[in-house]
Every structure is written in C-alpha cells, then in structure tokens.
Amino acid sequence: MVRLNRIYTRTGDDGTTSLGDGSRTQKHHLRVSAYGTVDELSAVFGLALAHGLPEPLQERLMVVQNDLFDVGADLCVPGAAGEKLRIGADYTARLERWLDEANEDLKPLSTFVLPGGRPAAAWMHLARTVCRRAERIVTELCDVPGERERVNPEILRYLNRLSDLCFVLARALNDGGAADVLWVPGKGRADGGARPTE
C-alpha cells in the first residue's frame, strides 16, 4: 500500500528520480518520460471528466484512468521486478470490447477528421494525441539496448488500442460523427481545394 506522509523529499533536486525498484535515474530518461506522459494522458481524461460526459463513458474513462496508473506503475518498475504490477491482455481486451461497441453505429469515414466539433469530442482528440505520444516514447524506450526486455509488451498494445478508442469516442461524442470536422485537402488554396465526399 502506498503511503504519502510528505510530498517533498529533496532527493530529486539533483535531477534524478527513483524508479519503483529503488534504482535512481535521470528525470529525462525515456522510461520516466514514458510514464510521465501516461500521467499527462490521465490528466487530460480528468479534464474531460470534470466537464461531464454521458454514461457509460464517464464511468469507463474513470476505469481507464485507473488502468493508466497501472501502466505507469508497470513502466516505473522495470523488468522482472515489476511482474506483480504488470497489466495483462485482459486490459486491452476490455478496450477492444468498448471500441467495437462505440464504433458499431458510426458512419464509415471517407476522409480524415480534424480535431474539434463538440467540446467533449475535442477532449478525446487531445487525449488521442497524448496517447500516441506516450506510445512513441515507449517504442523509443524499447529501442534502447537492454530496455526492450524490461518493458511489458502489453503496454504498447494497450496504448495503441486506447488511442483508437479515443478517436472512436470523439466521433461518437460528435453526434455519432454528424458533427465531425472533416479534412478538406488543399482548402487553403485559392480554389478552395477538393470537397470531402459524403
């Protein structure tokens, strides 16, 4: 059980931080950047939740926030030492069920969607981009010699599926896609560019 009696410790004043296994590393290490970005993603969901979302989405995103703390804990404890914290395939499978359910009633797209539309949808688009950044940092961490075997591969699957879910939820929150802002290639040209096909 985590117990926080005092918030500041002064141990990080030299630019280092403790990982979950007790080792210390630079605060700019890719592992720290990875779980820091996962924390940022959770904060974006927190803002979306604070502005109010319909059920069951409100409850589901609270579950996702808890998942993201598990992901962060998993990343914070590298390798075998973190096995008891590791997220499993059931986390990703749950996202896939929600994704299929949310996508079922959406009209197929014929062009790309720009972030925007309804405020709740815009929050989901922001969450999607932060999630993609977290995913990129984790893949970069995996490319560091000796780190791939110290990263739970399920984290990448989970983040990949979560970013997809954010995209689909954004469309669902845009009146089922009716309020999506569609990309018009070359719209800034003098002739107005091509129109998106309906």
Could you characterize what this model shows?
The chain is mainly α. The chain contains five helices and four strands. The strands form two sheets. Strands 1-2 form a two-stranded antiparallel ribbon. It has a two-stranded antiparallel sheet with strand order 3-4. The longest helix has 24 residues, at 119-142. 28% of the residues are buried. The model has no long low-confidence stretch (mean pLDDT 87).
Proportion of strand residues = 5-15%
Mind describing the biggest β-sheet?
2 strands, antiparallel
* Arithmetic mean pLDDT: 87
Q: Can you say what the CATH homologous superfamily is?
A: Cobalamin adenosyltransferase-like
Figure out the total of helices.
Answer: 5
Question: What is the number of independent domains?
Answer: 1
Please identify the top-level CATH class: Mainly Alpha
**Could you give the order of strands across the largest sheet?**
1-2
Briefly note the CATH topology name.
Hypothetical Protein Ta1238, Chain: A
Distance between the termini: 54 Å
| Helix-and-strand structural type | mainly alpha
Topology:
Elements: E1 16-18, E2 24-26, H1 30-50, H2 57-76, H3 89-103, E3 113-114, H4 119-142, H5 153-173, E4 181-182
Antiparallel strand pairs: 1-2, 3-4
Helix pairs in contact: 1-2, 1-4, 3-5, 4-5
